[in-house]
Design goal:
This protein has helices at residues 3-8, 36-41, 70-83, 86-95, 104-112, 157-167, 199-210, 220-226, 244-252, 280-284, 287-317, 327-335, 341-361, 364-384, 390-405, 409-447, 489-497; strands at 49-54, 59-64, 99-101, 116-120, 123-127, 173-180, 186-193, 239-241, 256-260, 266-269, 449-450, 453-454. The chain is of the alpha+beta class. The longest helix is centred in the C-terminal third of the chain and has 39 residues, at 409-447.
């Protein structure tokens, strides 16, 4: 039985699409022509698809039953169809908010987005009738703050865009709609402030997203890894957040914000290394307090990367660096340990990482218990068994605590990887290995870019004015609205030449 004849026999009834026909390849379909039967053929074997045919009016509807809000469907289409006649239909269609579709491909996309597609007189229309449930707006668990707003993004792109627009009530706030994923067709919205965001970086970002060749984009954190300038680097080159106030702040500074439908995180670009050490609380408190906390985070970065590595270097090659008062305690603690400091440190660092991951994956109450009890019990047992020394436990614990001070989880995880590299270099070459590792780290960071803008700006290249909102948080009267990184390359280059 032909599909078209089957549809014509349906009168005000909802039926599943039949499954006995042979599938039609999308390459056999002219996506620029309008043919309702071709659209239907794209959804073969979809039992949640609904096709309705109103024979007297020659109107056909197609939609997914579980994506459509029934109230919108009834009030937006069915009420005036059941009451109307052919002469009145043109007036009803013009006044009902239906959008005309110009291609089969667009009709298929609209159906997949939860719209209702209507066929009438060889013309196609769509009505936005998405009825998917969204979770309520709650406080962020991964970016908790003391002062400031406590709302966070959810998985709906429309809601996330509205939360940003409520904070930036400006006609200069523009949006660009893109899609990525050969199968998922994930909607991506780029937001920027016109005449403030750099045009070259905006075009570059659009091209990178359009060039993605991947089957499915399900989350923002997956997308940003596909558009990195240096995907092999352990350091993030896009700043992700689930806070609308942070996104609005990035937009005001001239950066771009990307919203992925289905993800509670948005990405901001271009960014610098120092953006990952800033928090909303820095701006909510007095500038002296905010500056002190930022300096504390940078100090925590150094401790996380180097503290355990310095212990390994000193106890392996450089005992002369230990103060004489501390040397007897260190010798006594190390005398019972049969392993070299490198093996000892790697073992304890791995235990800490296991406890960290276990605490993150378990329910909140159990995870906290595992982290506290596990750390105490394992640490004390390891010392009593002579597997490790007391001083190393202190060094590893301080390094682990310092990593939690960094606001960005992605950056904190990257630094944990770098810490293992420094421990290995210190275990093989001592202080020379630490200096070599530090040099490699600085070279790598200075060669990184975010949307082709320097990753270590305003230190490399140097712009002293931007230091007032990088390492320190100066009073608001001295903070510039636009950092040098988001200015166009020509502006930056001309300023460097002066």
């Amino acid at each position: 039985m032909g599909l078209l004849s089957f549809v014509k026999k349906m009168t005000l009834k909802e039926e599943s699409i039949p499954t006995e026909r042979h599938p039609i390849s999308s390459s056999d379909i002219d996506i620029h022509s309008l043919d309702f039967s071709h659209i239907v053929d794209q959804f073969q074997n979809c039992e949640d698809l609904r096709i309705r045919h109103f024979k007297e009016l020659d109107i056909q509807l197609i939609y997914f039953d579980n994506l459509v809000d029934k109230q919108i469907l009834n009030e937006g289409i069915l009420d005036w169809i059941n009451k109307g006649n052919t002469n009145e239909l043109h007036r009803e269609i013009d006044s009902s908010g239906l959008k005309e579709i110009t291609s089969n491909k667009q009709a298929v996309i609209d159906v997949l987005n939860g719209d209702v597609v209507l066929s009438f007189e060889d013309r196609l229309f769509s009505l936005q009738a998405g009825g998917a449930e969204n979770r309520s707006i709650e406080e962020s668990e991964t970016e908790s703050i003391i002062l400031g707003p406590h709302d966070s993004f959810i998985e709906s792109a429309d809601v996330n865009i509205s939360m940003i627009r409520k904070r930036l009530k400006s006609s200069h706030l523009k949006t660009i709609n893109l899609s990525a994923g050969e199968i998922t067709k994930t909607s991506i919205t780029i937001m920027y402030l016109e005449d403030i965001a750099p045009k070259e970086e905006l075009e570059y970002l659009k091209n990178r997203i359009n060039d993605i060749e991947y089957s499915g984009i399900l989350d923002t954190n997956i997308l940003v890894q596909m558009i990195d300038d240096q995907p092999l680097s352990p350091f993030p080159q896009f700043f992700t957040t689930e806070r609308p106030d942070v996104s609005a702040s990035k937009l005001l500074s001239g950066k771009m914000v990307g919203i992925v439908d289905g993800s509670p995180y948005v990405f901001c670009a271009p960014v610098s290394f120092f953006d990952f050490f800033q928090s909303v609380d820095d701006y909510s408190q007095r500038w002296i307090t905010g500056t002190f906390i930022r300096l504390l985070r940078m100090f925590a970065f150094v401790i996380t990367v180097a503290f355990t590595a310095i212990y390994v270097s000193v106890t392996t090659f450089h005992y002369e660096m230990v103060p004489q008062e501390l040397l007897p305690s260190l010798i006594e603690s190390r005398s019972k340990v049969p392993f070299p400091p490198l093996i000892e440190a790697i073992f304890l660092e791995l235990v800490i990482e296991l406890l960290r991951e276990a605490g993150a994956r378990l329910p909140t109450k159990i995870g906290q218990t595992i982290g506290i009890v596990g750390g105490i019990v394992i640490g004390q047992a390891a010392v009593e068994a002579g597997i490790t020394s007391n001083i190393l436990i202190i060094a590893v614990a301080v390094s682990a605590i310092s990593s939690f001070v960094i606001p960005s989880y992605v950056m904190s995880a990257s630094i944990r990887i770098v810490r293992f590299s420094f421990i290995l270099l210190a275990g093989f070459w001592g202080n020379m290995g630490l200096v070599f590792g530090l040099g490699l780290l600085v070279i790598h960071l200075t060669t990184l870019t975010s949307l082709k803008t320097p990753y270590m700006i305003p230190f490399s290249p140097t712009f002293f004015n931007d230091w007032l909102d990088t390492i320190i948080r100066a009073p608001y009267m001295f903070i510039k609205d636009r950092p040098e990184q988001i200015k166009t390359r020509n502006e930056t280059i001309n300023k460097m030449k002066k």
